[in-house]
Structure formats: C-alpha cells, structure tokens
Amino acid sequence: MVLPAALAACGGDCASLSGEEQANCAFEAIAQQVEAGRLDEAEAGIAALPDQLAREFVRLRLAIRHPEQAARWCAAVTEEPARGQCDKLLGRPHLRRAP
Q1: What would the pLDDT profile of 31-89 be if each residue is shown by its tens digit?
Q2: Phi, then psi, of 35 in degrees rounded to 5
Q3: CA atoms within 13 A on the CB side of 48
Q4: What angle do CA 28, 22, 32 make, to 5 degrees?
Q5: Other CB atoms closer than 10 Å to residue 27's CB: what's the count?
Q6: Under a CB-based contact definition with an 8 Å cutoff, are residues 57 and 50 in contact?
C-alpha cells in the first residue's frame, strides 16, 4: 500500500509496514488528523487507501472512536459488515455523545 507523506506516522512511514500493522498505522495517522481538527486531511488520507474495504473500516473505526461524528464517517460506508456496524452505532443516539 502506497500512502502519501501525510500518513507518515508510527515513528516512520506506514508504507514500510505491511498487512495489519500498516493498516493500523494508517488508521492512527488519520485519527490524529481528526483529533487535530484537520478533517479535510483525514478525508484525503482515507481516499488514498488502496481498497474500498480498508477505507470503510477506517471510517467505521473513526465513528467508534469519535461517536459525536459517527454520521459523518458512516455516510460513505456501504459494504457489509462495516455498514451493519455503522447502522448499529447510528441507531443508538446515546453512543453519539462526545465523551
């Protein structure tokens, strides 16, 4: 997976990792952008992920980590099982409150 420089994280470049470690590194880099309020950069990072399933699971994980933004992150999730998980999260308004 080739990721843009914006996703360099985890003490190095996510591209130097592979498999699940690479996916987790990319997610953490994108999550840091969200936490810093750089949502456009986070969206660009998600768009740079090479496959739809990876993009959807990043969006689902962001919705879980930031339930107050769940509607935003789940809006583009269309494939199962991530869509079902988003539906569950969105169906529970008490989970969407900021911590």
Answers
A1: 999 999 999 999 999 999 888 888 999 999 999 999 889 999 999 999 999 999 999 98
A2: -65, -25
A3: 21
A4: 10
A5: 22
A6: no
